[in-house]
Target: Bifunctional enzyme IspD/IspF
Amino acid sequence: MTVRAPAGYAAIVTAAGRGTRAGGAPKQWRDLGGRSVLARALDAFAGFDRVVLVVHPDDMGLALRDHAGGVTIVSGGDTRAASVMAGLEALEGQATHVLIHDGARPLVGEAVIQGVIDALQAGAPAAAPALPVTDALWRGADNAVTATAPRDGLFRAQTPQGFALDQISKAHRLHPDDAADDVELALKAGVPVAITPGSEDNLKITFPADFARAERILGTAMDIRLGNGYDVHAFGPGDYVWLCGVQVAHDAGLVGHSDADVGMHALTDAIYGALAEGDIGRHFPPSDPQWKGADSAIFLRHAADLARQRGFIFGNADVTLICEAPKIGPHAAAMQARLAAIMGVDASRVSVKATTSERLGFTGRREGIAAIATAALMKA
Ligand SMILES: Nc1ccn([C@@H]2O[C@H](COP(=O)(O)OP(=O)(O)OP(=O)(O)O)[C@@H](O)[C@H]2O)c(=O)n1
Ligand SMILES: C[C@](O)(CO)[C@H](O)COP(=O)(O)O
Model:
């Protein structure tokens, strides 16, 4: 879920720094759990009508490659304040309020952004998230404590910091010097700033170890779903069967309301199961004549689309066909490719294998084919 910002609200995401303390390539372009730090920070503002992304001139090509469309990309300056100023200039006359966010804070949550918006909507000219300092504070030198310092009334500042656009633009023009953040400039210009709730998850990637910390937060926040599916179809008259989207010659057909693709049905049910969305019968009732003889790809595509609409990506899918015949091995790769194409994933994430039941039971007596499937869905 992203925050839907009120009309007139814009966001500036600053990403023109070089990330010297983090080392390596500029931190905002580096991978964090499969997506760049910056892509994650930008995502949080997808519900804003206007978003300005400020990047280093050397990164303009990268920015246009990854973020063209939807956001306005401008070149930043030598300091954070100069980069924010470039963003503010791009917004002149285009918004009433602006939230200014570090591209290096990839895990900002809805509640933090909403808290800032609510304070501005309530009439504050400026509002920013922060956390009270809870640890004792010391002064130190040469690895020794030289004094203690009171922590009362001290806060750790975060972003996004929100402002009435005209007031923060004026503050930047009045004090074009660098500052730790935009709140500092607002205060210098006499603009009062409300404190809103920050979050421990809203860390700024600053040092190398912060990547591991962010990965840990992402890991615990990851929504992982597993679903299983099971299906059986009896043999009947015919000279081929549909299995996992591939037509396989056989001395019998499979009986069913649709094309009786038992493997595809098991996989579709596994996806519905992971989404707690019932089974194929709920979405495509067998009582409905329009599904008579239907291509089962319709069912699988529907389940895969539903997963994507809910924000999930596929971890993997695994289908096992249980039959004495036909032989599955020669067709397994084609089945894998077909299922992957229907689901819109790479074939390496889909497995199709088979086993006999050692001539035991209904599959052993060649009365039909059974299939079991597992699907893993993930959402960060
Ligand atoms: N000239 C600058 C400097 C910083 N930033 C942005 O401001 C945010 C917070 O800054 P910081 O963590 O200090 O980032 P860097 O300046 O990149 O880091 P470092 O000081 O370690 O080089 C980051 O998203 C950074 O890209 C910017 O847009 N323009
Ligand atoms: C803006 C800021 O993120 C607020 O905490 C921070 O001041 C900027 O980062 P820096 O490390 O101070 O440059």
